[in-house]
Amino acid sequence: MKGIIVAMPQTEATMKKQTSAAPDSAVSVRNVSKNYGTVEALKNLSLEFPRGQLTSLLGPSGCGKTTLLKIIAGLLQPTSGRIEVNGAEVEGPGPDRAFVFQDFALLPWASVIRNVAFGLELRGVAKSERESIAERYIRDVGLTGFEHSYPHELSGGMRQRVGLARALSVDAQVLLLDEPFSAVDEQTRRKFQEDLLSLVKHENKTFIFVTHSIEEAVYVSDQIAILLPRPSRVSEIIRPTGFRHKDVDSIRRDPEYLDIVDQIWASLRSYVE
Amino acid sequence: MTVFGYRLPAMSSLLVWGLLWEIIGRLGLTFFIPPLSEVIGTLFEIIGTPAFLKALSETSYAFFSGVTISIVVGIPVGILMGKSRLLDELLLPWVNIFLSAPLTALVPVLMVLFGFGMTSIIITTTLFAIWIIILNARAGVMQINRSLVEMGRSFGASPLDAFFKIYLWAALPEILGGVRIGIIRAVKGVIIGQLLISIVGFGALFELYSSNFLMSHFWAVLIVLFALAFSISELLAYLERRVAYYAAKR
Amino acid sequence: MQNRPLILKLLSAAIVFGAWEIAGRIPVSYAFPTFLETMEALVRMTLDGSIFQAYAETLKPLVLGVAISAFLGITLGLWIGLSSWFDWLFSPIFVVMQAAPLAALIPILVMAYGIGLTSKIFVVCIMAMPVIVLNTSSAVRNTPASMKEMAHSFLAKDRDVLLKIILPAASPIIFSGLRLGISAGFIGAILSELKITPTGVGDIITYSRSIADYPSMYAAIFSIILLAVVFLNLLEKLENYLFEGNNRGYASD
After folding, report:
1. Are residues A160 and A219 in the same domain?
2. How far, in Å, CA of A90 to CA of C168, rounded?
3. Is the pLDDT of residue B170 over 80?
4. What does the pLDDT look like over C6-34, one tens digit per residue?
5. Which residues of chain A have pLDDT under 70?
6. Residues of chain A found within 8 Å of residue C245, distances taken between Cβ atoms
7. Which domain holds residue A116?
8. Does the distance separating the beta carbons of B11 and C205 come in below 8 Å?
9. Closest chain C residue to the Cα of B190, Cα to Cα
10. A83 strand-pairing partners
11. What is the domain class of C52-242 according to CATH?
12. Domains present along chain B, CATH in parentheses
């Protein structure tokens, strides 16, 4: 399989390969374990997230993808191990990371513009300033004209655009996306995926993207980490290379894209009930 | 609530309040609050007395009659309202009015129409319980999933079959919820009725104890009443969870 | 048939009031006046102002009792919802109060506080407070976890989470707790006027009954029920208007 690095991540050899492919990590996960009582959710998991790229966490349900993402976000504490963002250890939520929620987590009593500006509001940015920033990102996600609408007046896809704009407006270097498109319909989802690709290209940010869709992961990722459950661990890391620079319309017809999708399904199918 | 890693049972704080009651009673701060131990002693004294048993049986009689009428009349009316739009539009405003109306104001009317006796108390109890039972049965029938109705039709269920095998079960969680709230309201209704028509049941007992300033007797009866009411409501909640186990998963 | 609901409502009212009129004319009981006689008595009491004096008296314990219950109930409910220790200590009391026939406390309240305004306010409070406390605490406890998580991930302080997430998210349920509390308060206010001392509307009811002026008695009862129902319905309308869409807007719609 050309252009694919298939690797067991915790051996020395593969660590080297990764370092050569991605010399600079924005986020490092080092030997992280997370136990709930006697249940091991994550076990001794290590992973590097290259700066300016999009890394997907992919795996069957219950494999701890969201747990890992929330540990990186600082919303959950690991039982052992450490997380580093730009070399500094994570001890809680910080201004260097912004989260996009699976169920959007919008404030239903607040207008779109207040929702988008909410992260800045919590940081004490003055109203006029934060609203002008919010307006810019509302435009960027294509919601101009809806500034004063309320979440219940928007479709699911538009609500998630609000969630995305909120995360972008705090200007964090790392964006954490927890199955952001799982609650929107297929067509909206495709549009989102294309928009996400152009975001990765134009915003100089590191994206960590949790998904359970194989096609989605392969379509948008620079690096895919496949997680297997009970206890959760990284089973392989895949870096699609051949079609990343092609335009959005031809990716799904690229032979390498199809190969990777098949290969991932082959390794995951035995874990699907 | 956990203390030193040990989980305290949910209602255990009542023991703390009981202790506080005992202390206040022992300190003799007020004549109206005798020590809890004294109240409990009195409770065991009076619980077998004819006066208490008479009050209990009269109250139970009024309560069960009222609840039975409410259930037997309320559920069918609610189901009919859920099925027939005309009936629904004619009755719903009145059900809503009586649901939020201060029904205590109607007790004097019942007293002049039906006399100072059991009938008035039973009707009061019914009036407190029936409206929510109707409303919930109606809501239960109205929320039945359309595809469940169509499934019945496509598999050729007769209207009777469809009613007893599908609609009743599909609406059961709401119906039971209504019955539970209705019964809790009936407990309040039966006591309010007895307080205003104070020659029957616990109403008469309260009158007797309070005019003779028998504080620990009074509190003993209150404890019995509250404990009974609480047990009824917990038991019903438990039964509802057992029977309507599928309610959350529809 | 755009105004079918309205026509049916009027029809329904006409049927019920018509039945009342006919039953009164038969008459089914010497103590059952016709609908028209009752309305006549209501108009008479309205014109001579006696009904307004009565309501000034009746609404006093109701308004004071509801205000006290709202203030104490919401404060206590917030504490119970936020602190597991408070929850353990206070919740059982209000759970029992919610299920128990608290009206039975009236004789003791009368012995302790006499037959004046204090006792009546107490009656309104014990009726209205449990539902306010329980609604507030469960609303606070059930704030959507993802919204709190969102606030934390955007670096909210505890004060921000309380003021900007928990309180707005809980306010619809708190408000409907208040409405249910007011509904129970009406029951308490009338109960105390009938049981403790006849004042206000309770006085009209009791006095007219004693002189067998049944139209006036029925009119007073009609008016208090009308007042309670209209007021509570307006509150519900206000609630729907204020919190429109508040319970929507989540992914699970």
Report:
1. no
2. 30
3. yes
4. 888 889 999 999 999 999 888 888 888 99
5. 1-23, 273
6. 108, 150-153
7. 97-171
8. no
9. C101
10. A29
11. mainly alpha
12. 35-249 (1.10.3720.10)
Q: What pLDDT digit, counting tens, does each position of A174-189 carry?
A: 999 998 888 788 888 8
Rounded Cα gap, residues B153 and B150, in angstroms: 5
Residue of C nearest to A72 (CA): C153
Best CA proximity match to A240, nearest among A224, A227, A262: A224
Task: Read off the pLDDT of residues B195-236 as tens digits, 9 standing for 90 and up.
Answer: 888 777 888 888 888 888 888 888 998 899 899 988 988 898
Instruction: Note whether residue A72 is domain-resident.
Output: yes
pLDDT at residue B137, as a whole number: 92
Query: Minimal Cα–Cα distance from C252 to chain A, Å?
Result: 7
At B155 the pLDDT is 72
Contact A225, A47 (CB under 8 A): yes
Per-residue pLDDT of A75-115, as tens digits, reads 888 888 888 888 888 888 888 888 888 888 888 888 899 88
**Chain C closest-CA separation from residue A88 CA (Å):** 17
Q: What pLDDT does A19 receive?
A: 43
Residues A161, A102: one domain? yes
Q: Which residue of C has its CA nearest to B89?
A: C8
- CATH code, domain with A35: 3.40.50.300
Closest CA to A42 of A99, A82, A94: A82
Do residue A213 and residue A257 come from a single domain? yes
Q: State how far residue B203 is from chain C, nearest Cα, in angstroms.
A: 8
Using a pLDDT cut of 70, give the percent of chain C over it.
96
Task: Please count the structural domains in chain A.
Answer: 2
- Spell out which residues of chain A touch residue C166, defining contact as CB-CB under 8 Å: none
Distance CA B110, CA B115 (A): 7
> Measured between CB atoms, does C149 come within 8 Å of chain A?
yes
Mark whether A30 and A155 lie in a shared domain: no
Among B103, B219, B230, beta carbon nearest to C96? B230
pLDDT at B148 over 80: no
Is residue C252 pLDDT above 70, yes or no? no
Which of B32, B36, B111 shows the shortest CA–CA distance to C107? Answer: B32
Can you tell me the distance from the alpha carbon of C187 to that of C199, in angstroms, rounded to the nearest whole number? 15
Asked if A89 and A104 sit in the same domain, the reply is no
Is residue A223 included in any domain, yes or no? Answer: yes
Interface confidence (ipTM) of the complex: 0.86
Sequence-ordered alpha helix ranges (H) in B143-214: 146-154, 159-161, 168-196, 201-211
Q: Do B196 and C31 touch (CB under 8 A)?
A: no
Beta-strand pair A39-50/A88-89: unpaired
Residue A262 lies in a domain: yes
Q: Which residues of C touch B12 (CB under 8 A)?
A: 88
Rounded Cα distance, B23 and B45, in Å? 22
Domain ranges of chain C: 52-242
pLDDT, tens digit, 9 for 90 and up, residues A29-39? 888 888 887 78
Do A148 and A122 fall into the same domain?
yes
Specify whether A257 is located in the same domain as A142.
no
* DSSP code of residue A100: E
Q: Given a cut of 60, is residue B237 above it in pLDDT?
A: yes
Within this chain, do residues A35 and A3 fall inside the same structural domain, yes or no?
yes
The answer to whether C106 contacts B8, with C-beta atoms less than 8 Å apart, is no
Across the interface, whether the CB atoms of C194 and B196 are under 8 A apart is answered yes
Q: What is the pLDDT of residue C129?
A: 93
Interchain contact, C245 vs A108, CB within 8 Å: yes
Residue B100 to residue C9, Cβ atoms within 8 A: no
Contact at CB, A98 and C154, closer than 8 angstroms: yes
What is the tens place of the pLDDT at every residue in C109-119?
888 888 889 99
- Which of A118, A122, A146 is the best mutation test for C, with the most CBs of C within 10 A? A122
Mean pLDDT of B104-121: 90
Report, in angstroms and rounded to the nearest whole number, the Rg of chain A calculated over CA atoms: 18
Residue B245 has pLDDT above 80, yes or no: no
For chain B, say whether C229 makes contact (Cβ under 8 Å). yes
DSSP-based three-state secondary structure for A175: strand
Whether residue C235 lies within 8 A of chain B, CB to CB, comes out as no
A255 assigned to some structural domain: yes
Specify the pairing of strand A206-211 against strand A174-178: parallel
Q: Is the pLDDT of residue C224 over 80?
A: yes
CA distance C108 to C243: 40
